[in-house]
Write a structure and sequence with these properties.
By secondary structure, the protein is of the alpha+beta class. The chain has 19 helices and 36 strands. It has 4 domains: about 230 residues, Sandwich (Immunoglobulin-like); about 120 residues, no CATH class; about 180 residues, Rossmann fold; about 110 residues, no CATH class. Strand 22, helix 2 and strand 23 form a beta-alpha-beta unit. Helix 2 packs antiparallel against helix 3, helix 2 crosses helix 7 and helix 17 crosses helix 19. It is globular, with a radius of gyration of 28 Å.
């Protein structure tokens, strides 16, 4: 079975009474720091106890600062603890009838909030605050807030997302949000424009206030606010105390002197023609390709690679950008459609990296430039940035569509020394493409160094592959003693020109308050450091110390109910559906010739046959009736690992939820044998019975421990996990520690992973 996009849900769950009632956003932008608070209000409109789960996006650079919960007159603050501990405490609170809220990071830029034991008519307000550093691009500053998750190609659960965390879509549902943006300080004088929404701007008390013209809008597109300013507020160097030390943030905005004529470059243009690009996105891609061809010079060389389930190259290798080649490419690219199936971007990137590129005067790096145009809607991308970085290619990404996967595109660009530009459907494409071309063709900054007034303990980042003219560069420094004076950026351009920019360091905030607790800059520096760590223990320790969300830490808060107010039964899961992104998923037609001509030239557009096969967003290759030789041309989709025998057992448990709740299923070891538990595990459990331990207790403990064991734990449905946890917590006598340890050892030996 090939990978498919997440399918739309046509029938609403819970009789259409979605618990999410409103989303209100308040953002403050000052200098290059923005702080955003998102208020989500949930109300249980059903007659049963429910658990609300909502997976939502945030900007990749967001550093979560606070989680606050309000239930009636009671208010709670979330605490960051180790992820496994948060899950365990959350499950225990649920089975004990208390209201619990857990916020976890499930993928870069994606978060899931869980609110369990919302009884009928209960209302809960969840407030999430994050900070983010903004960056100038020449004279433009972009504030960006994603509001929905577009369907993505691939299987999210194979990446570790649990079933309740994966996004679902309801065509009958409209989620809405309101937003207020305060633009403060020097930025208040900037010209404001939103390509995504109709806005109202007002001057109030020295700040500019931005609101939606209609008060609210559908959550079907990213909110984008562009700030335009010729001068003022583009650089800053700030410092604050952090416990016994100090943290400084320097934000440079280099403007290099005009140099000689740009050197010839070779550029590979990669265009996403997968099904998710239908509608607005493919129209933007065609527009981008037109702008790119206009910028190529005769001394440049280029090639075009289009990809979907397979890929094809316009020419066998890069060719000079002469009139004939540009005309050929222009005629073809005008007819681009989103008709190439799934997004197998990995094989296309591999083909580009391994393909033939020309050498120019011994400078092979002049050939290693890729301009990638895509919406980035793919789950399996995490291995691509390091692979691309090792190749020496620079990837300059252009994200198109109303709901771009920023995490993938920005990570790929940053890892390879390129740059990322996001373009909303109503945003001018020419400006963004021109900026990318300037980065590719103009002299690179080499030998980049940052000199602090005193020696830092650490800096983030600690090295720079390059910096670009007009692009903000953020650098953190951690110090034992207070740094006094100036911080200096030095760079040598590849044409020999030297550049220097110097900034005075200013103290931010109250020194006494900053010394007692870590401030925003210190926590953002810690988040940057965490992003470079690999060891789970180090990440967890730093995340808990600075109260930061990471892959291995989560926010948790529990509202312990008094007797009589506790939930009497386990909650029923209710996932909050996503809206489809505006303009997403236009249906196209399949071009037979495109999908098989991987490495050769292709026929002119007028001679290519077209097939009127409509694509269904959730369809596999087989369901689309695509001939097998086409689907296999470029790859068979993300590889699916075979189910283990324990995962088969978990599948049975998920289907037996109601019977499990009644205690009528899987009560002895013979039931485990029937459901396929491996022989060595059965033997270990049987030996425990022979040693005098109660058989039903053994089975109960075994099933509970499976809910905490990787990789099996992610296969459990949330309600199944609640049921098994409650059975464990309600054992008449606490499980014998020796028995429990022997079961743990047997499970770990079978699966090869330590528990929880």
């Amino acid at each position: 079975m090939k990978a498919a996009m997440t399918a739309p849900v046509l029938e609403p769950v819970g009789e259409g009474r979605v618990a999410l009632q409103s989303v209100k956003v308040h953002a403050e932008l000052e200098n290059l720091l923005c702080q955003v608070t998102i208020l989500q209000v949930y109300r249980n409109l059903e007659a049963i106890n429910i658990e609300v789960v909502y997976t939502f996006p945030l900007p990749l650079g967001a550093t979560l600062l606070n989680l606050t919960i309000k239930t009636g007159a009671r208010q709670f603050k979330g605490v960051v603890i180790a992820k496994e501990d948060a899950e365990e405490h959350y499950e225990k609170a649920i089975v004990e009838g208390d209201t619990a809220i857990m916020l976890e990071q499930v993928d870069p830029g994606l978060y899931t909030v869980n609110a369990g034991n919302l009884q009928p008519d209960d209302t809960i307000e969840i407030s999430i605050t994050y900070a983010e550093l903004l960056s100038w691009r020449d004279n433009s500053l972009r504030f960006f807030l994603p509001t929905t998750i577009a369907p993505r190609y691939g299987d999210p659960e194979s990446l570790g997302l649990q079933a309740h965390q994966t996004p679902e879509y309801d065509l009958t549902r409209e989620n809405r949000f309101g937003i207020t943006v305060w633009v403060l300080g020097a930025l208040a004088a900037a010209a404001l424009q939103s390509p995504s929404h109709q806005i109202i701007t007002q001057r109030q008390d020295g700040k500019t206030v931005v609101t939606l013209q209609q008060g609210e809008a559908s959550m079907d597109r990213d909110f984008v606010l562009n700030l335009l300013a010729e001068t003022g507020g583009k650089t800053a160097a700030q410092m604050e105390a952090d416990g016994a030390g100090y943290v400084a943030l320097a934000s440079f905005h280099p403007r290099f002197p005009a140099g000689s004529e740009p050197a010839p470059r070779c550029i590979t243009i990669m265009v996403d023609c997968s099904g998710s690009m239908g509608g607005d996105s493919i129209a933007q891609a065609r527009r981008a390709c037109h702008e790119i061809l206009q910028l190529l010079r005769p001394e440049d060389s280029f090639n075009v690679v289009c990809f979907g389930s397979s890929y094809w190259m316009l020419f066998p290798g890069p060719v000079p950008a002469d009139a004939d080649a540009l005309n050929w490419a222009g005629n073809y690219l005008e007819l681009l459609e989103a008709d190439m199936g799934g997004t197998e971007i990995g094989q296309a990137i591999t083909a580009v990296i391994n393909g033939r590129t020309p050498r120019r005067e011994g400078r092979d790096e002049a050939s290693k430039n890729v301009l990638l145009i895509t919406d980035g809607e793919v789950w399996h991308w995490q291995d691509l940035p390091p692979m691309a970085a090792r190749s020496g290619f620079r990837f300059f990404t252009v994200g198109v569509g109303s709901c771009v996967s920023e995490a993938f595109l920005r990570t790929l660009a940053d890892a390879t020394g390129g740059a990322c530009e996001l373009v909303a459907p109503r945003e001018p494409m020419a400006e963004k493409v021109l900026r990318q071309f300037k980065r590719i063709t103009f002299p690179k900054a080499e030998k980049v160094t940052v000199l602090w007034p005193s020696e830092p303990l650490k800096t983030f980042p600690d090295r720079f592959s390059t910096i670009y003219d007009g692009d903000t560069l953020h650098v953190f420094g951690r110090f034992k003693d207070q740094p006094a004076g100036q911080v200096e950026l030095r760079a040598e351009l590849e044409n020999g020109t030297n550049f220097v920019q110097t900034l005075p360091i200013e103290f931010r905030g109250d020194p006494q308050e900053s010394a007692e607790r870590s401030g925003t800059i210190a926590r953002m520096a810690a988040a940057w450091e965490i992003g470079k760590l690999e060891d789970p223990g180090e990440i967890t320790a730093l995340g808990v110390k600075y109260q930061l969300m990471t892959r291995f830490t989560s926010y948790l808060t529990v509202d312990v109910k008094i007797a009589g107010e506790k939930a009497g039964d386990l909650p029923v899961l209710r996932k909050t559906p996503q809206m489809f992104a505006a303009g997403w998923g236009g249906f196209g037609s399949i071009l037979n010739e495109r999908q098989v001509a991987h490495k050769g030239a292709i026929a002119p557009p007028s001679k290519r046959p077209r097939f009127g096969i409509r694509l269904k967003p959730s369809a596999t290759e087989e369901e689309r009736n695509i001939p097998s030789f086409i689907g296999k041309g470029g790859g068979d989709g993300p590889k699916q690992r075979p189910e283990t025998r324990l995962e088969v057992l978990v599948g049975c448990l998920n289907r037996l939820q109601d019977s499990l709740l009644e205690g009528s299923q899987i009560t002895d070891i013979s039931d485990l044998v029937f459901h396929g538990v491996p022989e060595e595990l059965v033997q270990a459990l049987t030996e425990l019975v022979a040693d005098g331990f109660d058989e039903q207790t053994i089975v109960t403990v075994f099933l509970y421990l499976l809910t905490r064991q990787q990789p099996v734990k992610r296969e459990f449905k949330r309600r199944t996990k609640h049921i098994l946890t409650r059975a464990y917590e309600k054992l008449p006598v606490a499980a014998d520690q020796v028995m429990e340890q022997r079961i743990k050892t047997a499970i770990e030996s079978n699966l090869g992973n330590p528990l929880g």
